[in-house]
Amino acid sequence: MKHILLQKHTLEDALDFWQLLRRRRFRALFQEPTANTVTQLFRYVITGASTFFVDYLLLFLLETAGMHYLPASALSFTVGITCNFLLTKCFAFKAVDATVSPPAEVAVFVAISVGGLVLTTLLMYFFTSHLQVYFMVSKLISSILVFFWNFLGRKILLYPGKVHEKL
Predict the structure, then answer these.
(1) Would you say 19 and 63 are in contact if contact means Cβ atoms under 8 Å apart?
(2) Max CA-CA distance within the chain?
(3) How far apart (Å, rounded) are the C-alpha atoms in residues 9 and 49?
(4) C-alpha distances in angstroms, 153 versus 16, 28, 71, 115, 157?
(5) Per-residue model confidence as pLDDT tens digits over 108-148
(6) For 160, phi and psi rounded to 5 degrees?
(7) DSSP bridge partners of 163
(8) How many Cα atoms sit within 13 Å of 37 on the Cβ side?
(9) Of 120, 100, 96, nearest to 109 (Cα)?
(10) Alpha helices in the chain (DSSP H)
(11) Directed axis angle between helix 2-22 and helix 37-64, to 10°?
């Protein structure tokens, strides 16, 4: 029964999102607080793209400066998750209360991100060392895959949908 309700809720969210987009209600899409999962995913795509840009550019610069691609990837990923935390909190999920206290929120966010870092590193190693894919392409592929890990972890564990009392 819960599965059917979740599908109905997600379908309603998608319809609401498309109505906002079709009516060019950009303020609602980008600025207004929302618990709409599809709008949050849309915002998280922007958050993820911004984070990826920081991460990818820093990786390129560090590797160009002579750092091995795996530690460079870990460092650039760490800088990226800092940007991601700020954008996630202030943009993608800004209307939703975290399920835990602020210190625990940071800890859970970091734990999800560390899981993403491990996945990124393993995927990059696999694509680069075993499949002989250029490391920057490996980074792109692994970032796309880890994006879903990060969004779902944050949506399910930290920001499942309870809207702030005061907006």
Answers:
(1) no
(2) 55
(3) 26
(4) 23, 24, 24, 10, 6
(5) 998 998 898 899 889 999 999 999 999 889 988 998 899 88
(6) -75, -10
(7) 96
(8) 16
(9) 100
(10) 2-22, 26-30, 37-64, 69-87, 102-125, 135-153
(11) 80
Instruction: Assess contact for 52 and 31: CB atoms under 8 A.
Output: no
Nearest Cα neighbor of 138 from 153, 115, 122 is 122
Q: Which of 125, 110, 116 is nearest to 143 (CA)?
A: 116
The structure tokens 């859970």 sit at 108
Chain length of the chain = 167
C-alpha 39/C-alpha 102 separation (Å) is 24
The answer for 24, left when phi > 0, alpha when psi is -120 to 50, beta otherwise, is left
Amino acid 114 reads V
CB 21 within 8 A of CB 53: no
Mind listing the pLDDT tens digit for each residue in 66-118? Answer: 999 889 988 998 898 889 899 988 888 887 778 888 888 889 998 998 898 89
Q: Which residues contact 79 (CB under 8 A, 6 or more apart)?
A: 54, 55, 58
Tokens standing for residue 60: 């390129």
pTM of the model: 0.74
